[in-house]
Amino acid sequence: MLTRRGTALAAAVSLTLLAGACGGSGDDGGSGATLKIATNAISGGKNGPQADWLQKWAIPNFVKAEKAKGVDVKVTFQPSGVDDEQYKTKLALDLQSGSGPDVFDIDGIWVGEFAQAGYVKPIDNVVKDSGAWDGWKQIPDSVQQLAAFQDKRYGIPNGTDGRVLFYNKDLFKKAGLPETWQPTGWDDIIRAGEKLKSVSGVTPIQLNAGTAMGEATTMQGFLPVLAGTGEPIWADGKWTGATQGMKDALGVYRKIYSEKLGDPLLQQEAQGRDKSFERFAQGRIGILMEGDYFWRGVVNPDGGVAPMKNRDAVVGYAKIPAMAPGRGVNGQDFVSYSGGSVQTLNPRSKNPELAFELMKFLNSAEAVKSKLAGQAQITARTDVNNEVLTKDPMLSFVAADVLPLTSFRPPLAQYTQVSTLLQEATAAVVGGTSPQAAAEEYAKKLEGAVGGADNIRS
Fold it and tell me: Which CATH number applies to 9-161+340-408: 2.60.40.2470, 3.40.50.1360, 1.20.120.530, 3.40.190.10?
């Protein structure tokens, strides 16, 4: 999955155009069409398995499938193995010059930037009857928002994830809490944290805060809390300023850290998030808000970075509740946030219909299962999830119960600056600043980040 470190796309493409760029892929001088596909992956390097899958399985099988339909096509893979910002900049430069691959992957958070720059267009504007693909029925409407901007679909979600509350059942038992736990509001979480204080050597709640944890503070912490107040960070063309929801969300941080339910020093350490993983695995943190990566990549007894041999018996998980029932975004009782990458097509492709056929093939149930290579991981497709997650109840839980209610970060260039300001606001509250003062300071800085007060909802 692509990471989320962004600079404004306009600044990136203003650097210089690539010399000698030609138009989008098309006729290669032979009797068939040529398509080019790009992603930030390279064999033996970054995202190597994805690059291998594209070259060894996906491309050959697509060419074979098209041949059976009487269509001769050559597909070339354009690998990259660089920092995501470098990949983004090169891709933007290619597209600006009228060149670039026919099909390419971008982070979902880049969709709005690329759309506003004209580098991608709604699929329906490029490919006739694109909405007739039967795969759309297998991608929940909530997940399709990953590839959407201003209510228009710009690509196909490649995969996604979900945020939940993880908790240690052994610690809950010691604190007199139920081993099967589903809080229905933030008061339930606070009360659980207060009981966990009775267990020696345990930090009751880990809610990521501060700038040291970077985007993990925003995505694994603040945004789900804010969503629980009923307010998204961006909606209807405006960013959320010093609203009541902003103050209420910061108030949750104040409650946790002022009452010593969380460890404020951990939020200031450069490796604080990694240490929180280790402490949870050691039975020293009671409740932790994280993505499903924590389950499959951190405490996984088979190859996790902080493996727990007794994970399946000890680690519980629950949906993130709204502040109170019905108080979440869209009137929801529970909330979450998700990320993921998007596959889209070059609007200047000389073969847009064939390029979309490639996209459909790469995102078919057969291809998605092949790409997983036997691993249990959440995909964008419900039918695939229903098949490959049957032996993993936690990932099945996310796919079935969390994805339908999830939200996504606004795919706009300003988001990166806004995210940093949110991190600073949480750091201030953890350090003792009142939620009111932190929200007002955040709102002042926000004006400069998003182009003035007219772009802020207060």
Answer: 3.40.190.10
Q: Nearest CA to 315 among 199, 195, 165, 203?
A: 165
- What region, left, alpha or beta, does residue 223 occupy, with left being phi > 0 and alpha being psi -120 to 50 degrees? alpha
Kindly report, residue by residue over 407-418, the tens digit of the pLDDT. Answer: 999 999 999 999
For the chain, the straight-line distance linking the first and the last C-alpha, in angstroms and rounded, comes to: 34
Tell me the mean pLDDT in the region 265-289: 97
In tens, the pLDDT along 374-403 reads 999 999 999 999 999 999 999 999 999 999
Tokens of 156: 């196909």
What's the whole-model pTM score?
0.90
Q: Where are the domains of the chain?
A: 9-161+340-408, 163-337+412-457
- Count other C-beta atoms under 10 Å from residue 197's C-beta: 16
Q: Which CATH number fits domain 163-337+412-457: 2.40.128.50, 3.40.50.300, 3.40.190.10, 3.40.630.30?
A: 3.40.190.10
Whole-angstrom Cα distance, residue 151 to residue 147?
10
Burial class (CB in 10 A: 0-12, 13-18, 19+), 26: middle
